[in-house]
Every structure is written in structure tokens, then in C-alpha cells.
Amino acid sequence: PALWLGFVIPAFAALYAPRSQPVPDAASIVDWLQATGRLRPAAGAGTAIRMPAPACACGNADWAATEPALMQAQLELVDLGAMPAPPALPFELVVLDARSQLVYAGPLRFDDLCGGDGIAVAGLLPGLLREPPAAFISTTGCRC
Question: What is the Cα–Cα distance from 140 to 3, expressed in whole angstroms?
């Protein structure tokens, strides 16, 4: 029992450690995107925005793998990768639906999952766009 507690307590402490920055809400994410002046009303299912992520050098390969799925979902692609990254918005990808409502903000890929296999966000987007829940916001850091 003592060995088990020695493992479980630090694990839970790491899970519930206070964040250095609060998680932004959907409205603040959309407001920042609109302030860039780069968004146009979506003509198809919505808009996929590649966010500036200077601390994430591994995003280019993931973006190349994700881009065809975004195009297949009839999302307009907007690349903000060359802009200065806003520290309060640590996302690689933001997806807005056709009404410019936030559907997803987070990484291009979720790694470090149980079993070692990651999940590409591209596979989740059709379901999120079909039946949008409340905005899915993940501040998972860069994987590399």
C-alpha cells in the first residue's frame, strides 16, 4: 500500500497542479482571431486556422498530415503561422464552424495516451463539426 500511495499521490498532484495561465474561453479566442483581420466569413463547413506556435517545431509534419483532412471536411484554411504568437493562446489549430463559433482549439495531435498511440485531431473533426458540442479547448503543450 505505501508503494502504491508513493506513486499515486505525486501523479494526482501533477494532474491537479495549478496552471501558470488560465485557459482562455471560446469568446476570447474568437475575439483574438477576428482582431487579426485575416478571417473571412466561412463559405463551407467552417474555418481551420493554423496558429502561430513558436515553441513547437514539430508542427510542420503534423500540419502536412492534417491539411488534407481539413480540406476534405470543406474547411477554409487560414495560416497565421508567421504572426507573433499570443502567449495566452497556446494552440496549434483552431477550428470555427460555419457560424464562426469555436469548435476546437488545441494541438494537431494528442500523444502520450494510454497504450502509446496518439490520436490525430483530423480524425475527430468531422464528428465535432457534424454535432458541435461546447467548444473543445485543450492547452496540451507541444509534443516535441
Answer: 29
Sign of the alpha-carbon torsion through 141, 135, 110, 67: negative
Residue appearing with cell numbers 503561422: 81
Cα separation, 39 vs 88, in Å, equals 19
Tens of pLDDT, residue by residue over 91-103, are 888 999 888 889 8
* pTM of the shown model: 0.74
CA 6/CA 4 separation, integer angstroms: 5
Other CB atoms within a 10 A radius of the CB of residue 28 amount to 15
What's at 141, amino acid-wise? G
8 Å CB contact between 57 and 26: no
- Sign, CA torsion 19/26/109/133: positive
Q: How many angstroms separate the Cα of 123 from the Cα of each of 54, 70, 119, 131?
A: 25, 9, 8, 14
Q: Yes or no: say if 51 and 92 are a contact pair by the CB < 8 Å rule.
A: yes
